[in-house]
Amino acid sequence: MNICVFLSAADLDDRYTVPAREFAELLGRGGHTLVWGGSESGLMKVVADGVQESGGRLVGVSVDFLAAKARTNADEMVIAKDLAERKALLLEKSDAIVIMVGGAGTLDEATEILELKKHGKHTKPVVLLNTAGFYDGLRQQFQRMEDEGFLPLPLTELVFFAKDGVGALAYLEESAGLR
Prior knowledge:
7 helices, 7-stranded parallel beta sheet, globular, about 45% helix, alpha/beta
């Protein structure tokens, strides 16, 4: 399965890097392909290293202004002209999406993917990997949106909140009929 992972390119502490590495190793050992922003820095590098070292493939989609930071030994690397094209390519090349910890860029990617799913533009499973409770506030906000009628379909049809990588991968494999 081609699994797109949206995540930070920042260097983060162990409470985020250790679970990210564990998830990456699960992907690699499972024979999955990581589809990601292609960066060779921060958490993006941690995950790419873990997938590659565990036997998985890497498909990167970088963007023109970040091409100098793109991983050179990915199995495939595409350079998009801008962030909009990058997001479209990441979605196109993936069978499922996992949103890991990140900043404003990751949040932008997450909300666009969920908005597209809400409108039926894709039906791919989406997981928010809630490492160390990082997305507790966002989960609360989404629940409020559902409770107050802002979501046209149940939150559970839009996104699955996973506490750890094992739960995230189990949900994705089950959604794909692999379990």
